[in-house]
From TrEMBL:
<dbReference type="InterPro" id="IPR016181">
    <property type="entry name" value="Acyl_CoA_acyltransferase"/>
</dbReference>
<dbReference type="InterPro" id="IPR000182">
    <property type="entry name" value="GNAT_dom"/>
</dbReference>
<keyword id="KW-0808">Transferase</keyword>
<dbReference type="GO" id="GO:0005840">
    <property type="term" value="C:ribosome"/>
</dbReference>
<dbReference type="GO" id="GO:0016747">
    <property type="term" value="F:acyltransferase activity, transferring groups other than amino-acyl groups"/>
</dbReference>
<feature type="domain" description="N-acetyltransferase">
    <location>
        <begin position="4"/>
        <end position="176"/>
    </location>
</feature>
<keyword id="KW-0012">Acyltransferase</keyword>
<dbReference type="Pfam" id="PF00583">
    <property type="entry name" value="Acetyltransf_1"/>
</dbReference>
<dbReference type="InterPro" id="IPR050832">
    <property type="entry name" value="Bact_Acetyltransf"/>
</dbReference>
<protein>
    <submittedName>
        <fullName>Ribosomal protein S18 acetylase RimI-like enzyme</fullName>
    </submittedName>
</protein>
<keyword id="KW-0689">Ribosomal protein</keyword>
<keyword id="KW-0687">Ribonucleoprotein</keyword>
Length: 183
């Protein structure tokens, strides 16, 4: 773990971020997202999203975790997204073989640090699929509270990309500075 390096993503990172994002969705979103969507050109879908997002980052940051130059995880945070809940951790994905090795914890801590440095308040939140109980446990262990349940919005606004009406949970940290620790 000592060889991990963290940096903000640039437009040249869109391809690798998209591939990791697509792989993570295929592994963890099956049952909530339609198989036809997950088994289709999800890489192309995520590539266009990340190319646009990283070309004009706006009031957000995408932080990459790399090991010997290879992407092993990333977190994307949108600052001051919600007046009540604060900054949105819109994505947190770790390469499957690197899960449970501390990468996610370090990425979450770096997102929290970015929030305390760049947002107007210290509150931070994210949405997690109700079926993703491993992620929920991780967020609860890091101090998040489940504050709301909602219907999952369809990716790209296309309802055919969902399987039924899956639910998601809003997990919130009232003070992100508690996540910083020693990152």
């Amino acid at each position: 773990m000592t060889s991990l390096r963290f940096r903000s993503a640039g437009v040249d990172d869109a391809e690798q971020v998209a591939l990791l994002h697509a792989d993570s969705w295929r592994r963890h979103y099956r049952g909530a997202y339609a198989d036809s969507f997950l088994d289709g050109d999800i890489e192309g879908d995520r590539r266009s999203v990340w190319a646009a997002r990283l070309a004009v980052p706006g009031d957000a940051d995408t932080i990459l975790a790399e090991d010997d130059g290879e992407l092993v995880g990333f977190v994307h945070v949108a600052f001051d997204d919600d007046p009540r809940w604060g900054s949105l951790v819109d994505n947190l994905h770790v390469f499957h073989r690197r899960r449970r090795a501390g990468v996610g914890t370090q990425l979450l801590g770096r997102a929290a640090r970015a929030v305390t440095e760049r947002a107007t308040g210290n509150a931070m939140y994210l949405w997690v699929l109700q079926q993703n109980t491993d992620a929920q446990q991780f967020y609860r262990a890091s101090g998040a509270d489940c504050v709301e349940t909602a219907t999952v919005p369809p990716p790209g606004g296309d309802p055919s990309r969902l399987h039924g009406t899956p639910q998601c949970l809003r997990m919130a940290w009232y003070d992100a500075s508690r996540l910083i620790k020693s990152v």
